Amino acid sequence: MGEALADASPEAARTYEEANEALGFDLRTLCWDGPASELERTANAQPAILATSIAALRAAQAQGLRADDPILLGHSLGEFTALVAGGALDFGDALRLVRKRGELMQAADTSGGMAAVLGLDADAVAEAIDGTGIVVANDNAPGQVVVTGPLAAMPAATDALKAAGAKRVIQLKVSGAFHSPAMRAVAPALAEAIRATPFKELKYRVIANVDAQPHEHANDFVTLLEKQVHSPVQWVASVRRAAGEGATTFIEFGAGNVLTGLVKRILPGARTANVSDPATLKEALDLVRQDPHREPG
Fold first, then answer.
1. Are 18 and 102 in the same domain?
2. Which of 129, 161, 192, 253 could form a disulfide with 166 if both were Cys (CB 3.0 to 4.6 A apart)?
């Protein structure tokens, strides 16, 4: 996670140094060398993903990647990255906050789980699982929805989804029913941590997961981030809203290109790129430089 970028970019390398100092442990080594079992723990994965995403963003900015009027959005944890990028959260404060968020989620009720549903849209999924105790967690893309809830209720929900036409229902390797009512238990402690974190004014608009609306004021997220942990991620609506605000080019920063793939499914005509290593950084820079309109994204 991010090692190749850090080798090539002093700005990315410094990002991991800052992360180590902010957290008081060697996140950099965990990101680069693992072990995977430790990195995948929610309390470690959340700051690791945030640090890697900001390292990728800074490496790209150092190479001249700019948008004239950017609009920012991030999926679940990625919303914290968007708030750092938008100037609302200090990087170190955000790392400590998502570390706390991860600890709370990791310690929450582990009798829940999540599953990816392929082949049905969110409305059809919600109708199929109504009354099973399972709910929609993420509306990721047309034909790709994540559901969440008690593990004991998953078999009945899976049967209902397949009867409704789902092509596959895939259990995800997670430790709880994230973005479900089960996460309300962590909300008070998370809200306390959020309120204790300084927020500054946003430089750019951020589209929130909870309502798929652009927000110009950082203080909105004091409530939105707490609500997000137990509410569905409205990713399809968020991406479509970004397009409605004028975005034609979408750049994903961080390890992997999952969100890039989702955007392609939501907006087949959008220009997309991801930044996860030096090669993809070059591709992203070339894409933006070829764009004669320099639209927001």
1. yes
2. 161
